Structures are given as structure tokens and as C-alpha cells.
Amino acid sequence: MVPKCPHEGCKNELLAESCRKFLPHKLIETMQQRKVEASIPVTEKIYCPYPRCSALMSKTEVLEYSKNVIGAQKQCIKCRGFFCFICKVPWHNGMTCHAYKKLNPNPPAEDLKLKSLATRSLWRQCVKCNHMIELAEGCYHMTCRCGYEFCYQCGAGWKDKKATCSCPLWAEEYLVRGT
């Protein structure tokens, strides 16, 4: 999330430039990166599939950058690596998406490791955008950064600020920080 002014009642965003005098350079970079991330709608976000890059781009940006490239093959705007816009993997040269998926039915090892970590850590995945969410404290009513609201216990959506499931609203161990 983009940082907001800590003064009570103020809703203004903190600008990285105005914080440069008292924050470390690394934190300023993080603030600037978060601003870029927040500016791209969830449905527009696409990541470079190359692990050494993983650049965040918007679909519009990728399509414009790769306008001279035909079909599903697109190019990362940062590392210039070619990837499949449909499969979200490095370019599968000479192979249709259907053939690629048939030859590679299992997710990559990195995805399996993340799923295993998420299971062990009791993380949940937003059903709308697939973003991983961890309940550190508070109730089971989650609001994902994409705006989707759901129950952390069972994943059922919320409507009009009300649960559509019969799960408890909270567990005491999550209500107080550090317990």
C-alpha cells in the first residue's frame, strides 16, 4: 500500500521526495516501488517469468512494448526476455500453448515450494486475484488489495460488509498483537 500521512485525520499520501532527508535510501526506493505497484490495477499486472528479473509490468505496457512481436510471444520491458503472454512462462519456441501445457502439466518447483510454505504458514489465496494473504492479527474478514472481501477461514465472499458463511468472525489469538 502507498504510505499515508501518520497525522490523525490526514488522508494525504507520503511523497518519497519529502521523506528523502530522514529515511534511508533503501526505504525511499521501496516507497517509490510501492507507488508504481499501486498505480497498476490488479487485472493489468503481469510479472516477467524469468526469476532473475520478475519485473512488474502492466499488460498495456507489455503490449505496447511488444507491438512488433506477433501472437502470444511478448517481451519483458526490463530484461527483454521473450515470454508467453498467455501461459506466463518463458517463450515456448515452436510450440503452441496447448502443446506446452500438455508437456508441462505440473507447476514449477518454485510454485510448489510457495504452496507448501503457504500451507504450513496458514496463508490464504484471494479467489479473485490469487494474491497470498496472511492473517497476522484481527478478525477473519479480509479485504484483499484487489478489493475483494472474503472470510479467511473458508474463503467465502462477503457481501455488503456481511459474511456469507457461518464461520466465527475472529479467534482470540489473532485479536491481540504478540499473543
Automatic annotation (TrEMBL):
InterPro entries to which the protein is assigned, alphabetical: E3_UB_ligase_RBR, IBR_dom, TRIAD_supradom
Keyword Chaperone among UniProt keywords: no
GO molecular function, one term: zinc ion binding
PROSITE patterns documented for this protein: TRIAD
Every RING-type domain range: 1-171
Enzyme Commission no: 2.3.2.31
Reactions that this protein is recorded to catalyse: [E2 ubiquitin-conjugating enzyme]-S-ubiquitinyl-L-cysteine + [acceptor protein]-L-lysine = [E2 ubiquitin-conjugating enzyme]-L-cysteine + [acceptor protein]-N(6)-ubiquitinyl-L-lysine
Pathway: Protein modification; protein ubiquitination
GO BP term, pick one: protein ubiquitination
Reported cofactor(s): Zn(2+)
Record keywords: Metal-binding, Repeat, Transferase, Ubl conjugation pathway, Zinc, Zinc-finger
PANTHER family: RBR FAMILY RING FINGER AND IBR DOMAIN-CONTAINING
Protein name in UniProt: RBR-type E3 ubiquitin transferase
Source organism (scientific name): Lotus japonicus (Lotus corniculatus var. japonicus)
